[in-house]
Amino acid sequence: MTEDKRETIYDIMGGARTVRMLVEAFYPRVQQHPLLAPLFPSDIHPVMEKQYLFLSQFFGGPSLYSDQYGHPMMQARHLPFPVTKERADAWLGCMSAAMNDIGMPQDLKDFLLERLQGPAYHFINTSDSD
């Protein structure tokens, strides 16, 4: 197998279709979550599209986010929002539930959530006491 043929996480999880399904299952949960909903605009569709582009790239798919918006600089993009550990946990909980909703196998779900924990906790920029 050549280096060009290496399978990515994106490929293993089912590519664009699965990432799209995950994003579509995730954001309704975010919009209903009392800690997360206030951080998002009422028109969630642009956020969903950016998340689709980002997750595609994050999991080893095409560089859709960078191609459209430049370097992700995700920590800087999250600075205007009060991200607490409690909110990071809630975000991961919504993502876990969305993975269940789309029927993701448990071993793949566990692996993806482990990968997402790093960024989720890296974006914490305020204490839980706000």
From TrEMBL:
<keyword id="KW-0813">Transport</keyword>
<keyword id="KW-0479">Metal-binding</keyword>
<dbReference type="Pfam" id="PF01152">
    <property type="entry name" value="Bac_globin"/>
</dbReference>
<dbReference type="InterPro" id="IPR012292">
    <property type="entry name" value="Globin/Proto"/>
</dbReference>
<protein>
    <submittedName>
        <fullName>Globin</fullName>
    </submittedName>
</protein>
<dbReference type="InterPro" id="IPR044203">
    <property type="entry name" value="GlbO/GLB3-like"/>
</dbReference>
<keyword id="KW-0349">Heme</keyword>
<keyword id="KW-0408">Iron</keyword>
<dbReference type="InterPro" id="IPR001486">
    <property type="entry name" value="Hemoglobin_trunc"/>
</dbReference>
<comment type="similarity">
    <text>Belongs to the truncated hemoglobin family. Group II subfamily.</text>
</comment>
<dbReference type="InterPro" id="IPR009050">
    <property type="entry name" value="Globin-like_sf"/>
</dbReference>
